[in-house]
Design a protein that fits this description.
Blueprint lengths: L5 E7 L4 E2 L1 H15 L6 E9 L4 E4 L2 H5 L9 E10 L4 E9 L6 E7 L2 H16 L6 H4 L9 H25 L8 H39 L1 H9 L3 E2 L4 H35 L1
Parallel strand pairs: 2-8
Antiparallel strand pairs: 1-7, 3-4, 3-5, 5-6, 6-7
Helix pairs in contact: 1-3, 5-6
Length: 273
Amino acid sequence: MKFDRAGIVKEYETSFLLEPTKLSKIVDIIKEHSKRLDEKSYITFYVEREDNFFYETKVLDEVLSDDNIQGKSIKRFSINLVEEEKDETIVEIDFCVSRDIKVQFNIAYKNRDWCLVLADELDNQIGRTLKKGYLASFPLEKYDILLLPVLFTALLLGLFLFSSYYEKTTNNFDLSNMTLEDKIDHILNLQMKEKSYLIKIFPMMLLGVLTAMIITLMKPLSKISNIINRSIFYWGDVVADYDRTVALLSKIKWVILFGFIISILAGILVKYL
């Protein structure tokens, strides 16, 4: 079957980490395949920044020399293979940090086999720029609302366990064998324990309400998701900023793991000592 023009489109929702070496490899693949075209062509690069400034260039090093600093960081970057005579785009690869579709490429040419072979190589190379791991593709920001029922359940469980302990400590007495004086002392102790119980319950409930407000207003899972799943153009000042974030997340991970292990060991020691 003969086509006037055939093509392929592919989209990726996973966040990316686009490094200069991987970017150069993608450009080299396009250059190599452009040599097999019947028409003359050229490659251009399009950049949009956070400060709404944009520019186009035919020199990749000009893009990689961009300072990419906070407030002027790159938010969109496109690679375009253009047919020289008709000024028609044959290949477009678009990386964008601010939309759900993080990476997208479009290939359109009269030779279907040429399109499919190039698409296969680009798919493989673009896949190497995507962030790996379970959290990189898990939509944490959609689960903030689930923290509230989890918190409510935990609060109810805590109140139940505390109430059970209180009931166990107050009812484990045989009043028939007590003297009048002991009974009076026991009643006074119960009243004191009841007041103590209420004093302990109130901060627990207040903490639950405050935590619920923090979850509702701050949306912690969304913030964590934004940090973990942030797409990165890995050159300029962004490199140092991203490396610091990765190091901080690693430390937080180990602190949480260490705290979890300590809490388990403490529970075992309390139970058996």
